[in-house]
Amino acid sequence: MWQQWVYPLIFIVLVLLPAPWLGRYLHWFLEKPNAKGELWLLKVCGTNGAGQDWRRYLGSLLLFNLLGVVLLAAVLMLQGCLPFNPEHKLGLSWPLAINTAVSFVTNTNWQAYSGEAQLSYFSQMFGLTVQNFASAATGIAVAAALFRGLSRQQSQDLGNFWQDLLRVIGYLLLPLSLVFALVLVWQGVPQTFSAYPVAHTLDGGKQILAVGPAASQIAIKQLGTNGGGFFGVNSAYPFENPTALSNWLEMVAILLLPAAMVFAFGRYIKNAGHSRALLSAMLILLVVGLAVAVWQACLPDPALMHASAVGHWEGKESRFGPVLSAIWEVATSAASNGSVNAMHDSFAPLAILVALVNMLLGEVIFGGVGAGIYGLLLFVLLTVFLCGLMVGKTPTYLGKRLGILEMKWVVASMLVMPVGVLVLGGLTLLLPDAQAVLGANGPHGLTRLLYAYASGTGNNGSALAGFNAANNGQCIAIALAMLLGRYGIIVPVLAVAGSLGSASKVEVTDGDFPVTGVLFVSLLVITILIIGGLAFLPALALGPIAEQLTLGAF
Q1: What is the secondary structure of 17-29 as a DSSP string?
Q2: Fewer CB within 10 A of the terminal residue: the chain, N end or C end?
Q3: Euclidean distance between CA atoms 508 and 528, whole angstroms
Q4: Is 229:111 a contact under the CB 8 Å cutoff?
Q5: Residues 6+ apart with CB under 8 A from 510
Q6: What is the DSSP string of 293-311?
Q7: 260 Cβ contact partners less than 8 Å away, ≥ 6 residues apart
Q8: pLDDT tens, 394-438?
């Protein structure tokens, strides 16, 4: 199949081609002087736009996110009394409302509900779509604060959270989403406030067609690496992803802004070679995942072993083929996106393993908008620190000495994924209703559990079918995993940014570890795989790897 070679190449080219220009634009609008309109909006937010240290920056972020959780949960529980509800949807239960509110505020978009069956248009627009913008802007704002901390010296000013938030939404997310939404409408995605129409079939039956203001939410769900679909089956639903062109555009949009963030970082530190090295590390891990997933998708189905049965078609998007389904799976798990155009539960075990590894590494292979680059930079600090220790020299990064304080925060961030997946996920196995939650015995049941908590803690949002996400206990437990995965990384990132921003730069010498070239890229990839993935190897061996062995040879 020529598609298995050509399609991944086209995908990577389409992602990388506009990234340098978008990165330059990101740097420009984040650091440009204030305009009069911005000052007025900042006054509405109760600030004059003055710079904040890392604690005040974090305090503003947490306050904004807390208000978002409270408001969204209230909307979801009270939607039966709110407007734009032509289908008369009732409010959600409080555990499901809390889970959904935390999910969208943390940029996870874990969906334990079916949108067209349980949510009103008001909840979808005013609740979920608004948080798609806000959570994506929050991730970019945190990344910008870290960029400033690494590029400035003897300064506690990391920027102003409210200003960064307004600029990201106003200059980037809103314009891109508006254009993208119009393209999706052109392709056939509905954008209407009318009630669900009824189709009369040839045999005299009736079918209710779910519609709504979908295009506007789908645009930002992809661009903002949110992933929460307007409809329950996400981008596998023809109304959400109607054509081959919409499929390609939605797929590329997942990694578009995360790739641009790498180039924006290069502009901040005035070191394009280092940003290219970071991009190379991301691409190496992405290409390996694509190779394995596409290879598995193109193998004959073991249940239909004959010459014409090429490719695992079960659960795939039959309109576009298994190759594009595999590419989407890798892209959505490499970023904290979570949107799907196929049923991941029916993928081959090794293909599921790829998605699991992408999430368990902290989703730093491009990752979420902003979250991917600041998560990767924590691994960069760890790599530079370890290499400095090996040569007996005080580790420095971009002219800043790395001390014990910074490394304590980095190590604390490395514990987030193991605690969220192995501890919170492990507690599920001790519950009396564990079997009902997993919906499967043996290795596949464990794989579903690992995937759910890797997705929650990694702020991804995708899941394997059969996992009972709507269980009240799981709603609360996965909400805790989502909070840990989001703020357990943001707090160390801002603390490191504040510490390094207030430090002075030292002269870079030949004895310092270089942060460009093949050696740096190789050591960074090795550090990500060892530190990020070693803790999960026993669990993966009992889950997807054991399941693959039951099907036959690799």
Answers
A1: TTHHHHHHHHHHH
A2: C
A3: 25
A4: yes
A5: none
A6: HHHHHHSPPTTS-STT--S
A7: 18, 19, 20, 22, 23, 25, 26
A8: 789 988 899 899 999 999 999 999 999 999 999 988 888 888 888
